[in-house]
Amino acid sequence: MERDLDNILVNWAKKKHRKPILLRGARQTGKTYAVEVLAKTFTNFCCLNFERKPTFKKIFEPDLDPIRIIKEIETIFEVKIKSGRTLLFFDEIQNCPPAITAMRYFYEEVPDIHLIGAGSLLEFALDSISVPVGRLKYIHVKPFCFSEYLNATGKPSLAKAITNINYENPPTEIIHQTILNELRDYLFLGGMPGVLKTYLNTNSIIEACEEQDDIIATYRDDFNKYCGRAGTTHLDSVFDTIPRYVGKRVAYSKLEPDAKSEQVKRAITLLEKAHVLLKVKATSGGRLPLASGVSQKKYKLIMLDTGLMQRMIGASYQQWKEKQDLFPDYAGSIAEQFIGQELSCLTELGYQQQLFYWERSAKGSSAEIDYLFAINGRAIPIEVKSSAFGHLKSLQIFLKTYPHITFGIKFSEQNFQNQGSIKSIPLYCISQLKRLA
Question: Does the predicted model carry a pTM greater than 0.85?
Answer without folding.
Answer: yes
